[in-house]
Design a protein that fits this description.
5-stranded antiparallel beta sheet, Alpha-Beta Plaits, alpha+beta, Beta-Lactamase, 402 residues, 15 strands
Length: 402
């Protein structure tokens, strides 16, 4: 019996998990050092005591059922069980002799860390099958897992190892994209960002999804980052937006876009009390140009005037085709005096410029400055009235509307 005890003890102590030998009545015959380390008592506190009396398990019937299978069949088995919130992996092995009267029980406390490792491994298999770039990163900003799409995105070797993300990504992406977002996610802030991203000579519109992975204590241990390339859709959206805001012939803004810009500017000056003016002008005798030379020549005149005016206004001025041969320019931070000077400058430029087959032409201008609190319609109507006064008074002139 002493020889069996020594052998049993050797088997127990060779394992780092909790190890016990039980008889067929579940009385403890021996324990290993791992038991004494986790539950600091002497061996005498365990030996001879009933396993279920000593350990206050919640799922006693499950334990007994597995023990009985091993005692009756002589085959080893393992099972998992949750006890008092702890995940346990239990292995049960019979001690073979003339009759099976005892069993060896090894209990492994599946720690949060080891469960996360298992989850990350499983996630890793899924991640590698996904076509979009994905990586998993821990609190130390160490990349734990990636897929081939992520490696291709940054032209990385097939194995990145456990390396800091800052050493893997290029083009300033660590500082400009990931660092702040990841810190926010680990602090419990939801993050999802879409932006244009430069990759040297290439530019892509990417959406970054940050999915936190929580441990049992609701602490974020890792974050899964999924990168979706929406470049094609974004370019299509921008093109559709451009088309919706642009006059198809002259390629400057259309009336709808101008009205949007006008509303924003008026809201701005309500806060900052700055000047805002508008120029409204049209081409003198434009119908005659179309009737004499045809609509192709008329269209060419419209495009030439557009190009000439565009080159002689500021980048923040809003230039749009108002309709037919009428054009409008919104002038932020510009009073009525400077607006009038610009109108006269443009009038002289246009009248002195050859318009191809149509020769030299002229334009008439109306100018108004926004009065705080007046309706938008009134602001534009006053410029329109100035334009028609210029027409009635001989054309090729500028009229300020008070």
């Amino acid at each position: 019996m002493k020889q069996i005890d020594e052998l049993s003890q050797t088997i127990l102590n060779a394992n780092n998990n909790l190890g016990l030998i039980l008889d067929c009545h579940y009385n403890i015959l021996a324990v290993n050092d791992a038991v004494l380390h986790r539950f600091p008592n002497s061996k005498n506190d365990y030996v001879g005591k009933n396993f279920f009396d000593l350990f206050n398990w919640e799922n006693v019937d499950m334990w007994k059922a597995h023990f009985q299978i091993v005692l009756s069949s002589g085959t080893k088995l393992s099972f998992q069980v949750v006890e008092n919130g702890d995940h346990l992996h239990v292995g049960v092995t019979p001690i073979l002799s003339s009759s099976i009267t005892s069993i060896v029980v090894f209990i492994d406390y599946i720690t949060i860390s080891s469960r996360n490792e298992e989850l990350l491994f499983r996630y890793g298999q899924i991640i590698k099958a996904v076509q979009q770039p994905i990586f998993v990163i821990d609190r130390g900003m160490i990349v734990r897992n990636t897929n081939n799409a992520f490696l291709k995105l940054y032209d990385l070797p097939s194995s990145t190892g456990n390396k800091p993300l800052s050493k893997l990504v290029r083009y300033g992406h660590w500082e400009n994209i990931y660092k702040c977002s990841l810190n926010n996610v680990f602090d419990g802030v939801e993050e999802k960002k879409a932006m244009w991203v430069d990759f040297g000579t290439k530019r892509s519109y990417l959406t970054f999804y940050y999915q936190p992975v929580y441990n049992r204590g609701s602490r974020i241990n890792t974050v899964v980052v999924n990168i979706v390339d929406n470049t094609e859709n974004r370019l299509l959206q921008e093109e559709l937006k451009r088309i919706s805001q642009t006059d198809p012939l002259t390629k400057i803004y259309n009336r709808s876009k101008f009205n949007d810009a006008l509303e924003r500017e008026i809201e701005r000056i309500k806060r900052k009390y700055s000047d805002l003016s508008v120029l409204l002008f049209d081409i003198d005798f434009f119908k005659k140009i179309n009737d004499t030379y045809g609509h192709d020549v008329g269209d060419d005149v419209l495009k030439k005037i557009t190009a000439l005016v565009s080159q002689n206004i500021r980048i923040n001025d809003v230039f749009a085709r108002w309709g037919g041969e009428e054009f409008i320019i919104l002038l932020p931070l510009t009073d009525i005096c400077n607006a009038s000077l610009l109108a006269d400058k443009l009038r002289v430029l246009i009248s002195s410029h050859s318009m191809g087959k149509a020769g030299k032409i002229s334009c008439s201008f109306g100018v108004s400055s926004y009065r705080m609190g007046e309706p938008i319609e009134s602001f534009i109507k006053r410029a329109d009235e100035g334009l028609y006064k210029s027409k009635r008074n001989g054309r090729n002139r500028v009229t300020i509307s008070d």
